[in-house]
Every structure is written in C-alpha cells, then in structure tokens.
Amino acid sequence: MAxxxxxxxxxxxxxxxxxxxxxxxxxxxxxSSKPANLELARDLASLSADGGxxxxxxxxxxxxxxxxVGTELxxxxxxxxxxxxxxxxxxxxxxxxxxxKPDEPGVGVVLVTAPASEGAPHMVDGNYWGRDAHGKRVLSxxxxxxxxxxxxxxxxxxxxxxRAAPARLDPPDLGxxxxxxxxxxxxxxxxxxxSQLLDGRSVLEVVTxxxxxxxxxxxxxxxxxxxxxxxxxxxxxxxxxDSEDEGEDYFFVLxxxxxxxxxxxxxxxxxxxxPDAPDVVxxxxxxxxxxxxxAVAGHLATEHTGYQGGWxxxxxxxxxxxxxxxxxxxxxxxQRFLPYRSxxxxxxxxxxxREMTEATPAVVERLAKGLLRGLGVDRRFLPYDxxxxxxxxxx
Length: 395
Fold this sequence. Notes:
Blueprint: H1 5-13, E1 23-26, H2 34-48, E2 52-56, E3 58-61, E4 64-68, E5 71-72, H3 76-86, E6 95-100, E7 107-114, E8 123-124, E9 127-132, E10 135-138, H4 141-156, H5 158-163, H6 165-169, E11 179-186, H7 194-197, H8 203-211, E12 226-228, E13 233-237, E14 252-256, E15 261-266, E16 268-270, E17 279-281, H9 283-305, E18 310-317, E19 324-325, E20 345-352, H10 353-358, H11 360-375, H12 378-381, H13 388-394
Parallel strand pairs: 1-2, 17-19
Antiparallel strand pairs: 2-7, 3-4, 5-7, 6-7, 8-9, 9-10, 11-15, 11-18, 12-13, 13-14, 14-15, 16-17, 18-20
C-alpha cells in the first residue's frame, strides 16, 4: 500500500495502478447527487466480489494510470463511507486511506480498499455487481449462483484440503518426524493462472523479495532453488530427492494457479547428532516459517495478482505428542516445560492482504499462539515485532 505522494506517482508510472479486475480509477467523484452516489456504490460493490481498490485522484488514460493529479478531499472520505454503508446491500465494509498532495492543502489521492466480501455479491439499485477485465458490470442470475456456490465450496473444503496437505505436498517416504503445513487461500481465485502471471520466474525469484529479512534456520524459503513440476502451479523445493535425515532438509513451496500458497517444512528435529539424541519441536523455525509464508502470500497478491481481499490461513503440525520444545534442552533459566499433549496442532484464521503485508506478526501470532502455549513458550516468543527477534528468543 502506497504511503506517500511519491509512492503513488512511482506506482502509477510503473503500471502497478492500471485498471484491472481489482483496480478502478477515477480522476474525481462528481458532486454529491443520487446518480453520482449510485455510480460510486456500483464501483465499490463490483470490487467486493473478488476484492480490490478504488483510487480517486488519478487520471484514467484508457484504463492505464495517467497523471496523479489529486482530488478535492473536503467531505469525500465521509461520503464514501456513507455510500458503502447506506447504498449497498448488504452494507460493505471498506478501508479508506488519504494521501495528501505536497504543497496543495485539501488535495490528495484517496484509496478505498474493498476486501473480498463474505457477503458478496452485493446489490445496488436492484442489481448484483461484479467485474471483468473491462471494468464493472451487472452479474447474471447464473453468475450470482455460481459465485455463491464457489465461495461456499472453497470455505467448506478448506479443512479437508489442509488435512490432505501431507499427501499432496510431500514426496513418498519422506520420514517419520513431524512437519509443518501451511495453507493460505484467497477468498476469490485469481482470474488468470499465477504460473502465467509470473512469466517464467522461479519460486526462489518470487519469495526472495517478499521476505525482507535474513532467515536463520535451514532449510527455509531461500532454500527453494530446485524447480519441481507440479500440476497445480509453480513449485520449488530445497532438494530434488527425499531427505536422508527423515525430512529435516526438505522444504517445499507451491504457488498455486488460483493464488493460494502452500508450504511443507520441518517442524521436529533431532537435538544433537548422536543416534539416541531426542526429538524436539523446533519452535523458532516454526515461527520463522509461518512469518515467511504470510509475507510471501501478501507479496504475491500485492505485486503479482493485485488481489486485495480476504484470506483463510491454516496451520497443521503433525506428530507432536510427547515432544518438548528445543528451548527445554538449552538449560537456561527456570521455565517449566511439559510434553505436548496432542498428536497434532491445527488452527485456521481469517485475514486480509493488507494485514498480511502491513501486520505480518499479528497474523502469525493468531496462527501460532495455541501451539506455543501448549509447549509452554508462548510468553517467550509472543508478541514480536520483527522476525529477527525470533532467533534471539530461541537461544
């Protein structure tokens, strides 16, 4: 999300803000009247189907972002909020950001983010609205039914897909130690296959700029240099063969064609090199991997697919029963640790593209808190502000 006038100008010049399935441009909103407010409501309702952003203050040069000129701000933020809540059925929650134009008081760019809505499609003036490559349009009855069915199917099948992650993501005979599986799914599938959008990039080329921090544990996202053929999208792994040490060296990432991100990573490690060394839960590695996955999904949506809507994010950690966290064997302090009581840890949270990019640790905390509490290390690791803190707290 742009934060300064310079950010907006740079993004517009680079084509990032061109009109798409998820972006609507307006140089200005006409003065308040019933027709003008209905048109504004239609714009917002159409974006809610898959999530998107309405940008006011940029000239529309035949669906490409033209000059960043700004618009009069007086009363506009309040008016947009009132239209979103009063002219759209059901009411549509939006987020409004105002970026002031330097040296011109009262003028700026307004960015209205409409997440993919659980209540979509939304109705304005008797019609349901959606978008295609050419902008907003009225949805047919068949499209409305199909959209509702698709949302219900994606939501209902999420838990089943998460449970099936080991069979879908791991090679045969990977090993017996527990692993971490992450499933990050947008509420609406990408209209164009992600593998085509990435235009020949490797997984490593996509994830590297997304991380913005130095990884501590190996393997990690920066280990996924081996391309892996996959029917569902673009995949990369840390090794092309099964690990010789029961999966400890195998890290797998799938950037699915529908915009989802799937990860399989180590969760349990042997504490030491001797054959009788105990297995422990690698808590710091788990947190770092969760942080990286959320950051990668947010980056993929922001920089490549343009998706600004809601997400379901799920975590599955297997073969945990009876294990202690790695910190329990460091012999530092007097903290009490107890063996984990369940065979696995499963949780699901809802978030948005914006939260994943701007408040990554908050998403990770919701994902990991129950697991860390069960290991007795939640207060040690949570909350955190920067992924570099995870390694320090692991000592």
